[in-house]
Amino acid sequence: MATKSPHPSPTQAPAHPETAPTTSVVVVGAGPTGLLLAGDLVEAGLDVTVIDKRPANLSNLSRAFGVHARTLEVLDMRGLAEDLLAHPSYKMDKVAAFGNAELDLSRLPTTFPYLLVCAQPYVERVLRDRLERLGATIQHDTEVTGLAQDDDGVSLTVTGPDGTARSLRSDFAVGCDGVHSAVRHLIDLPFPGGPVMRGIMLADVLLAEPPARPTVHTNRQAFAFAAPFGDGYWRLTAWSRADQADDGEPSLDQVAAAARQAFGSDYGMHSPRWISRFHSDERQVPRYRVGRVFLAGDAAHCHTPAGGQGMNTGMQDAANLSWRLAAVARGASLGLLDGYHAERHPVGAEVLRSSGRMARLATARSRLAVAAREAVAPLVLGSPAVTRMATMQISGLGIRYGRGPGDARTVGTRVADHELPDGTRLFEHLRAGRFALVGGAAPAWDSELAGWRNRVAFLTGPENQTVLVRPDGYTAWVGAPDPADVSVALRTWCGEPAS
Ligand SMILES: Cc1cc2nc3c(=O)[nH]c(=O)nc-3n(C[C@H](O)[C@H](O)[C@H](O)COP(=O)(O)OP(=O)(O)OC[C@H]3O[C@@H](n4cnc5c(N)ncnc54)[C@H](O)[C@@H]3O)c2cc1C
């Protein structure tokens, strides 16, 4: 089922594409997905235009509240994890599940073995500050209203703050414009799926008598979740079967009533700085790429808030797409861009499934389902193997991509950060969108393969093989320690060497 949209028809193409200013990539939308993507592209040296219909001073208050381990790794690969950790936040190393069971994140194989509770505006601020440091600007109060593409590029119509429409021409365009995406509509993609939950209330509040730690409770009438932001405020997520109003701001009393139903207490909540109610759809576009136009983040997929995956999945979409666009700009085959849909669409589909399962279980009504939920969860999560699988999935660390015929077993798998013989860390070398070539002889090829020096870190590693690590931290290629083979791999994955 396609969503209804107030946006103009896809036939509304720009008036004078031949005279429009040209750019490599137009990023539509400066939420977390668009900001990460734009920063990566600018850092890779591409000419990028970023537009957002939001006014400059209006934040995405407060929305997502959790940054998972893999997203923190993505930020670390950009030198931004420390910036985010400097903002108010709370490291949650145990995530409550059903029936008093807990998911222990503290044993995750990562530098960040926790869920970082941190308000979405801080994530956006870190990404925006990076863009500013790189000298890029966001054109605010500016929305896309027309789009057409041909074999050579994309022509967009954008409407600025004074209501005047103008044309832009780019090699590629990426719709990071959220769940009501105009880009999605303009390329005529359906957004099949439907509603899952109504009446989810969110409030960022102070608690006079806070619980000792993050807490979740579910019964047949209600569920609620409370977690601290680290700045005195708590995020309350509450749902009550008895209060299924449509969207629109609930009162604090309504949130407190649902919390009392679930927790048996409202913890003396007061002074909300943000309060909201929303319904949740489960939808996903069938294709993340149509020609030279891509969709990423909420524009491509939406699901329930269970598991806190929305912002995280969008940022990881962006990290997967940015290095591909940069490589193609440097002469890699356009086919490299197909990998974006091939890898990220299944990840989005799995997020829809797992988040939907959690939400349906949390709101289950029948006595049988409730009993099963409360009894089975602690038993299942008592198994170390199940716990490891569940924590790897929820944290994003377990995501692995496919490999081609004849590829080594590790191609497509995540490469964990680790210390190198010279005391540096692998992730430090992936900054600025660089690949890492790791192998015994790799440093010696620095001159032989000098054309890639700016894009590839040549690092010491095992003697008998060479591993090419992508800028998003997954293995691209594994081969023999032979510069001739390596140069073929570099051409494929990173583009042509600089002369
Ligand atoms: C009320 C609410 C609560 C949420 N709570 C949670 C949560 O608890 N946990 C969680 O993980 N996720 C949550 N989410 C989801 C999370 O906020 C999103 O997954 C995340 O913001 C997605 O980022 P994005 O950059 O893809 O899209 P968005 O953050 O939506 O950003 C899209 C940007 O595009 C701009 N834009 C839109 N249309 C146009 C246009 N035509 N032209 C130009 N610009 C345009 C918008 O102004 C916006 O800045 C919540 C969402 C909502 C609405």
Automatic annotation (TrEMBL):
Cofactor requirement: FAD
Domain of life according to the entry: Bacteria
This protein's record includes keyword Iron-sulfur: no
Positions of the FAD-binding domain: 23-354
Keywords, comma-separated and alphabetical: FAD, Flavoprotein
Region entry Disordered, spans: 1-21
Entry keyword annotation includes ATP-binding: no
PANTHER family from the UniProt entry: BINDING MONOOXYGENASE, PUTATIVE (JCVI)-RELATED, TRK SYSTEM POTASSIUM UPTAKE PROTEIN
Name assigned to this protein: FAD-binding protein
Organism (species): Myceligenerans indicum
